[in-house]
Structures are given as structure tokens and as C-alpha cells.
Amino acid sequence: MPNSQSIRRVLLALAGLMAMLGAGATTAGAATEYGELGSPFSETANVKLASTHAFGVDPSDGSFYVGDEPAAGKYRIQKFGATGSPEASVSFERPSGAVGLGGIAIDPKLKRVYALVVFEREEDEEEPLVVRFDPVLEAAGYLYAFSTEPESGTLVPAKEKGVPFKEGLVISREALGSPKKSSAEKPRMALLDPHGIVVDQTNSEVVILGREDEQEIKEKEQEPIFRVAAQRVKSNGTLGPRYVDAANCLEGAEVVKEEEEPACAEAPIGEEPASPIVSPGGRVYIEDTGGAGEIWEIPSKKSNGEPLKEIPPGKGRFETHPKRLFAAGGEQQLVQFPEPGASSAGGEMSFVPSAGAGEGRIYLDAAIFEDLPGGITRGPGSYAGALVLGYTEHGAKPEATELGWTGGQSPASGEKCSLPISVQPILVGGGANEDLLLFDASNEANAVDVFQFGPGAPEGKGGCRHAEVIVPSVKVGGQEVSPVPLGKMATLSSEVTEGNAKSIEWKFKYRTATGEEGEETPAKGGYEFQTTHIEHEFQHAGKYQITEIVETDDLASPKLEEPREVTVAGPALTVGFSYPESVPGGKAAKFEAKVNDPNEPGTPHLKYVWTFGDATEKAGEATATAFSEEHIYLAEGPESVTLKVTDVHGVSGEVTHTISVSESEQRIEEEAKAKAAAEAKAAAEAKAAAEAKAAAEAKAAAEAKAKAEAEAAAKKKQEEEQAKKSSEKPPTRAQLLAKALKQCKKEKPKSKRAKCEAAAKKKYVVNTNAKGKKKHAGGKKHG
């Protein structure tokens, strides 16, 4: 844990936090994402900035505890409720030689909060010139325990069988194997370089992780030999067993024995494992601090369940053989844990049980590197974040798998999901609802704050970096091709930015040129980091809709889909058929087809369509490369016959030939009969026409004769009438006058009658003029 004057940042999760916090709450049913939810805790501002810090969470109620040094010579533990309000505190004197708090751990079952105090070895005043052990190393010194149930705002000492521990002290440095005088120390006694504490919930024992000296320094230039050790302290304050990596697996031992892990030879040399956690089954895990991204188990028994070897017998010291639980892998470029460049002191990893037995989540301090267009930037381009693993210990072998990461935003961006820059590592903890909180007590920022992360941020407003996947490429023989050749192995690949591909699934939907639709068997892949790829052989010619579904480790964008359309084509089929050059109408024309399908060298599965040119077609299927067809033409003339064949992959081929269709014999006979009948009919019609003409002419002659005779008779009659008229005498004037006067008698009145009579007399009476000549009243002589 940190020395005094250190700067500490802590990432944790509190159970039930989402139900309690107003900040970051979203409307029911609204789309949400994983991101920063706000800063709910402001009451932590009374934590002393320029001091040592320790932190722990009570998973039973979401309360948390902060350790600091409010004044010289004083250590303090404060309890805060799940909403961030201070509830209680306790202060105690700093023991002689103490240099800081080495960690806080909570036991919900016994309702205790533990605090470890570390001290620095001192030179023996009685033998100042004798250096038997490295004098500057820190060692586990004092373990305190206080009740999580305060009395009048004070955290009182915890009790063991009803009796409180004096001033809360559970075990002293001497009991832990660290005598005040170095002359009294022996190898394998002190627990050096403590790197975190944790409570085993299966038996309420406190586990302290550190190292032990294996031998005294007898020569000036002699280097000390250390071994990783996990010391257990029972709840009553007595020492439990100590488990020691005697074979030095965790520091790169090359000798692998039966009970050792083969990966021991790959472990970083000289690094100090830290941050112990305990699983629901009591398994102790530690984090490799060499930046290799590994988690190791410190077993308390052999793989077959037998007890470990005690060395030497009766001393409570057991030889353990670490087992690697999780390794990030050398291809991991985006996420690294622990955060590089920060001095480790434990508390950078935490475990939170899930609802299922033997399951939970592991939270780790991590560095998230920038993923720029030119590639991932290491070093200055990394920012603080957290990595989340899923854990299960069902069966004989426990497993841990990556769930995702969060944070990693540059503080200079001013965006959410950014953590303050510090040389100190992040301390992590977790709880229900997948929530994370960052406790920041930074001298640089001159403030104490808590930042909440988790699901529930409004979609697009979580502030965290979002992963993306580019459109997949399709290559054959290392070259991008279009169209993609049918039946050839193609490599589909894409790049993921701002995330790793935990798993992928490729879907292949197709539509052939004939309209057939379907979907080929999806292809799936496992963890592929930032470059995904799959080998696939396309089985159909036509259009494909490819969809790549990527499950990423970026908690802000856990699932991505990217479509791509490609065209697949195969070698065309060779199609031919024999045919008659000429065929009489009404008789069957026979066609013999042969097909060569390079895409299906075995038994073919062909579909064909004959188009005969006379507006008729015939479709069928064949499982052989040769097949025949017949067709009867009814009309003469040239006809274009086309055969199109398509195989099971959708690849087709076609050929066209022209045949001549002549008249049929039956039709010739029928046409001759029809011609004779037509000629006979024409002759009959001509005869009938001639007869009709003669009759018409005779009739016309008779009509002309009758007309002439009628005209002659009329003329004769006229002449006779004229002759008769000529022989008759004209009426006398007297007769004419009498006739006129007779007519005048009919006129009325009398005056009009008189005028009529006067006119008649004037017309028909002859007057004698002066010369004695007769003159007609009209001035003309009368016959």
C-alpha cells in the first residue's frame, strides 16, 4: 500500500447503487449504454489529501471505508454510507516505525473492517554494522479490526467471543514474524512488501500478500532471495498457514515439477504480485504487476485435493504451486493491466460474487491505449481505465474470461469517462449492477471526488470511447477480388478500432440469378483482438449480403454489425445440343443436349429451360450431363431454339441454334383439295355470272323495245290529238262573251259583277270606228 504523502485513486462498485442515486438516472424504457453516470459522493471531501490512503467496500450494504492520516502520528478510518454521507470514524495512534496503511478489507459476516499498518525495517542499534537482511524494505506490521456497526458515530474495536480487541489491535508485528530487532529475525519470518489484504468469506480469515526472505545476506554484494507468500490470519488474531511459492514460479522459475504450472517459465522475472482476491470457493488469486496481464492462483491444496507439503513440518508454512488463471495474450494491444508506470501497492484488483454459486466478476486497474488512424499508440497515449472479467469455478478448473473495459478517455479532452492522471495505480472494487466508482484524492487536483461508471447512461451520452468495425474485405490468394470466384477459399477480414473482438459471427445470405434465395451456414470465431478474419468457400453464384457481427470488449459498444455485399461468379457451363437442320411441320424435332459443369464435376444437379422460338418453353431438371427433348412445330419457317442450363451454384450457360420448319404432306394434300374446290367454286361463280349477265341483257333489250313501242304510241296519239284539234272550229266572239258573262253572274256584289261584265263586253264586243272598220276590243284582229 502507499507510503505517506502518496496520491491514491480508487475504483469501486457499490451494491444497489443504481436504485439510490439520482445522478445518471434514466427514464424507464429509454435506450442506455455503459458509461460515466456522474459524481454522487461529495462528502468525501473531508478526507485528508496529503496523506496515505486506503479503501474498502462492504458488499452487504454498499457502505465504504476510507483510511487516511489526518494529522501526524494519527491514522483514521471513516465509514460512508451507500449514498456517500459520512456515518462514523475512528482514529488510532500510528505505531512506532509505521510508514502507512497497507489496505482495508471488510468481513460482512463478522461485521468487521480490517486495516493493515506497514512499517519499515530498522537497523539493529546493537549491531549497526551487521546487515543480515535488507533494512529498507517495508513489512506487514499491525492488523486492526473495528466493528462496522458504529456506536455514537464511532467505529469501536471489534470483538472476539464478546471481548473487544484492545484498541482494535488483532495481531502485532512480532506475531507476524517481524521482531523490532533485526538480530532476532530469522529467514522466512517477516512478511515483506505487503501488496494488499482481503477477507476469505468461507472462513473469515484475513489474507495478507507479500514476500519472505529465504536467506541471510552474508556478503556485501550478495543479493537477497525472495519468495512470494500469502499469510493467513485467523479471526481470533492467531496466525494461520502461510503459503509460499518455494519453487519461485511467479518470478520466472524454469524448472517445472509435477505440481507446478508450465506457464511458470513465462512469468516476468523480478516482479511483485499484488492485490489478492478470494473467490466464493475460497481460492486466492493475485495479479501479476509486470504488465503481462496475468492472474495467478495461490492454491491451498494440491490439484488432486491432497494437502500441501509443510516445510518444515509443524511450522505452518506450506509449499504451494501457483496456477495461472488468466492471461491477456501477447496480441492484446489496446488494454494492458496493471496500468504501466505506476508503483503497485495492492488493491488494484477486486472480486464481486454474482447471484450464481461459484460465479462473479473480477475488476482490474488497466491502461487503455489510444487507437488512432495510424494504429494504437503506446506509452504517452494510454489513459486510466478498468478491465472486467467474468469468473466461474464450476467443475474442476476455474475460468476467467474478458467481459470488457471502460474509461480510457484522455483527461485533456474534458469528456466523461476520463480519470485524473497520476503516478499511482487505480484501486478497484466492484458490486451489483456492474457499477464502478472512482475515488480520487489527488493533490494535483486539490480535491476529493468519486466518479460513477456503469450501465444506465443515456444512449450516446455515456462519454466513453465507442468501438467501430470497418467494412470487411474479401480476398482470394491475398488479393481483393470482385467478383469472388465460386468454390474458391476466400478470406474475409476487418479491423476493429477502439475495441477488441471477443467473438465474431459471419452470416451469408445469397440470391442467385434465377431468383433462388437462401443462407449458408454461419461462421463463428473466438477472441480475435483487433483484426477479425474467417475462411469461407462461397457455394452459390449471385449476390451475397454478408453481415459481420462483432462482440467487442468495449462496454460502451458491446455489439457491432457491419454489412457488405459481394458478387460471386463461377466458370460458365458449356452447353450444346444436336438438332435437325430441317423438319416438316407436324413432325417431332428431336434435340440431344450435352452439358459440361466445371463447378460440379461429380453428379450434377441441373435446371434447364428450352425456348423453341414459337412462343413455347419447357423447363426441367437433370442429374446427368446428357438429356434430350422433342418438340412439334405447326408453322413453317426458321425458328431459333435456345437451351439455358443452371447448376446448383447458380452458374448458367446457354446456346442457340436455328432450324427450318417445312410444310407437312398432309398440309400439301389439304391445300391441293382446297385449291380444286376454290377453282370449281370460281368456275361456278363465273358461269352464274355469265348467265346473270345474259339475262340482264335480255331484260334490258325487252325493256328498250317496250320503251320504244310506248314512245311511238305516245307520239302517234299526240299527232292524232293535234290533228283532231286542227280540224275543230274556234268559238265565236258571241260564244266567248256569253261564257264570260255567265262567269260574271257569279261575282258579288253587283258593283263587282258590273265591272266584270263591262270588261267582258269590252273584250269580246266589236266596235265600229270612224272609218267604218271593225276592230277587236283588244286592238287585234280576230281570225
SSE layout and pairings?
Elements: E1 8-12, H1 17-20, E2 32-38, E3 54-57, E4 64-71, E5 74-80, E6 86-93, E7 98-107, E8 112-120, E9 138-147, E10 159-160, E11 163-164, E12 169-171, E13 197-200, E14 205-213, E15 226-233, E16 239-244, E17 274-278, E18 284-287, E19 294-297, E20 309-310, E21 317-319, E22 323-327, E23 335-336, E24 349-353, E25 359-372, E26 375-392, E27 399-407, E28 426-428, E29 436-442, E30 447-458, E31 468-469, E32 473-476, E33 479-480, E34 484-485, E35 489-497, E36 501-511, E37 517-525, E38 531-537, E39 542-552, E40 559-569, E41 574-578, E42 582-584, E43 588-596, E44 606-611, E45 617-622, E46 626-632, E47 637-646, E48 652-662, H2 665-727, H3 733-744, H4 750-764, E49 767-768, E50 774-775
Parallel strand pairs: 1-28, 16-21, 34-40, 42-48
Antiparallel strand pairs: 1-29, 2-30, 3-4, 4-5, 5-6, 7-8, 8-9, 9-12, 10-11, 13-14, 14-15, 15-16, 17-18, 18-19, 19-22, 20-21, 23-25, 24-25, 25-26, 26-27, 29-30, 31-35, 32-33, 32-35, 35-38, 36-37, 36-39, 39-40, 41-43, 43-46, 44-45, 44-47, 47-48, 49-50
Helix pairs in contact: 3-4
Number of helices: 4
Could you tell me how far the N terminus lies from the C terminus, measured between alpha carbons in angstroms? Answer: 179 Å
Strand tally is 50
Residue windows where pLDDT falls under 50 for at least 5 positions: 1-29, 768-783
Which percent range describes the beta-strand content? 35-45%
**Biggest sheet, spatial arrangement of strands:** 13-14-15-16-21-20
What is the residue-mean pLDDT, rounded to a whole number?
81
- Oligomeric status: single chain
Helix and strand composition category: mainly beta
**Helix fraction?**
10-25%
What does the radius of gyration come to?
A: 60 Å
- Characterize the overall form: elongated
Query: Biggest sheet: strands, sense, closure?
Result: 6 strands, mixed
